[in-house]
Automatic annotation (TrEMBL):
Domain of life where this protein originates: Eukaryota
Comp. bias (Low complexity): 16-27
Annotated region (Disordered), positions in chain: 1-40
Organism annotation: Chaetomium thermophilum (strain DSM 1495 / CBS 144.50 / IMI 039719)
Name of the protein described by the UniProt record: Uncharacterized protein
Amino acid sequence: MKQEPVGSPGLGHSQAQPAAAASYGAAPAPPAEVEPGGVAAGENPTAIRFLQRLVELNSEDTASLEKGVRVLKNLKVSLQLSNCNNTQAPHWLESIDRLLNTRPLRRGAAPVSYARMKMIMINHVEVKRHTMFQQATDSVKLHLEELTKRIETEALSVSGTRLPVCSRRRGHPLSGHDWRFPPPPREELLLLQEMKPLVECVDEAFREHVWASSR
């Protein structure tokens, strides 16, 4: 009778898939049918789906797991996860090779293999956050550009055809502050106020993703 890995239900479709949906904004894909080779036909797995496949393969035996890794390599599936500087990013297949070479997986060794796979998942989340931060930064930059244009448009609508020029008598064009002192950071406050919901939303998404992926 085959022995199932201890703890595998905790990182299968019930935990890893919701994290994937939260991260990528897509609905969970239905499980694919597995060929005798150990991987689904025509499947191009993401890092999280690859982890799920390894958990499923590990529930069978070491030979299936090793064969599944070899098939994925032969398919030349790109699983390189890069940060914004494109340096020091772990490679999934190399991580799995180290996992297999350090301690061969076999029936009855489920707690060890499960723990190692969980650590790989945590590493994936840590690196993936760089990409998520980059996407969020790009979105915030675009939002700030639009906000800056809106502020300039409002200033132009007040002054007519051009922005007013600071002078000893008129002070700062937007605040009316005395020219001898630095103007209050009105524009910066507006930007921070507009950015706050975006930053809070991104931070909350990171917290949920890391919490769900590291359980």
